[in-house]
C-alpha cells in the first residue's frame, strides 16, 4: 500500500471550488512539511494558498478540518495494489512504494502522523483511511491463496500485511534511518515465511485452538 499520507492525489477536473480545495490542501501539505503540525495555522494556510482566510474558515472551520480533508483527499487517490504474480513479489513491490513515498516527503508524513495524536478528528480520519487501505490490499493474500502459495489454514490477511510492511515504517519513521534498498524484499520474504509456518492465523482459528487446548486439559485433569 503506497503511503497515502505522503503523496497528493491526482488532480480531478472541477470548477472554482475544486481549484480552491486543491490550492488549500497543497498549502496544508507544504506547511506541515516545513513547520510541523504545531506550526499549522489557518492564516498560514490561507496565505500560502493565496486564498482569503474567510474562505478557509468557512469551508474547513479549524485546523482539524484541514487535517481531515488532507487525509480524505489521500483516500481519493486512484491506486491499485501491485500484481506481480507472486506473494513475495507483491509484498516487495508494496514495500518499495511505501519506502519511496516516505523518502520523497518524510517531514510531511511524520507531521501528519504526529497531528493525529493531537486532533481527534484527524485520528478518526486516519484510522478510516488505513482500515480502507489494508482492506484494499487483502487481495494480495487472496490471490496467493488461489495460487496455492499459502497452506491451509490460510492466514489472516490483515496480520500478514501489517507484518510485511511494519519494518519499513520502523526503519524510516521510528528509527529515522535512511532507506535500505534490501529491506522491502527482506521484510516481504520474512512475512511470507512466517505465514507459511502458521504465524498469522485468523482470530477464529486461535479461538478454536484455545478451546481444544482447554478441552484437552479438562479431559486430562
From TrEMBL:
Region Disordered: start-end pairs: 198-221
Protein name in the entry: TetR family transcriptional regulator
Single GO MF annotation: transcription cis-regulatory region binding
DNA-binding found in the keyword field: yes
DNA-binding region boundaries: 41-60
InterPro entries: Homeodomain-like_sf (IPR009057), HTH-type_TetR-like_transc_reg (IPR050109), HTH_TetR (IPR001647), Tet_transcr_reg_TetR-rel_C_sf (IPR036271), TetR_C (IPR011075)
UniProt feature, compositional bias: Basic and acidic residues: 203-221
Gene3D superfamilies, alphabetized: Homeodomain-like (1.10.10.60), Tetracycline Repressor, domain 2 (1.10.357.10)
Keyword Transport set for record: no
Domain HTH tetR-type: 18-78
UniProt keyword list: DNA-binding, Transcription, Transcription regulation
Bilayer-spanning residue ranges: none
Source organism per UniProt: Streptomyces silvensis
Amino acid at each position: 500500500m503506497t503511503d497515502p499520507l505522503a503523496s497528493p492525489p491526482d488532480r480531478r477536473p472541477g470548477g472554482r471550488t475544486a481549484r480552491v480545495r486543491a490550492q488549500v490542501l497543497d498549502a496544508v501539505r507544504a506547511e506541515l512539511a516545513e513547520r510541523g503540525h504545531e506550526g499549522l495555522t489557518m492564516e498560514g494556510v490561507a496565505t500560502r494558498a493565496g486564498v482569503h482566510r474567510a474562505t478557509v474558515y468557512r469551508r474547513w472551520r479549524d485546523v482539524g478540518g484541514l487535517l481531515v480533508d488532507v487525509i480524505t483527499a489521500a483516500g481519493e487517490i486512484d491506486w491499485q495494489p501491485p500484481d506481480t504474480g507472486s506473494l513475495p513479489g507483491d509484498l516487495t513491490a508494496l514495500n518499495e512504494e511505501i519506502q519511496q513515498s516516505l523518502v520523497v516527503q518524510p517531514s510531511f508524513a511524520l507531521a501528519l502522523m504526529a497531528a493525529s495524536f493531537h486532533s481527534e478528528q484527524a485520528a478518526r480520519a486516519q484510522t478510516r483511511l488505513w482500515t480502507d487501505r489494508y482492506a484494499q490490499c487483502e487481495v494480495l493474500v487472496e490471490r496467493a491463496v488461489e495460487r496455492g502459495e499459502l497452506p491451509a489454514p490460510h492466514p489472516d490477511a490483515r496480520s500478514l500485511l501489517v507484518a510485511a510492511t511494519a519494518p519499513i515504517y520502523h526503519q524510516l519513521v521510528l528509527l529515522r534511518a535512511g532507506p535500505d534498498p534490501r529491506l522491502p524484499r527482506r521484510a516481504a520474504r520474512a512475512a511470507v515465511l512466517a505465514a507459511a509456518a502458521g504465524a498469522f492465523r485468523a482470530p477464529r482459528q486461535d479461538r478454536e485452538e484455545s478451546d481444544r487446548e482447554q478441552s484437552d486439559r479438562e479431559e486430562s485433569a
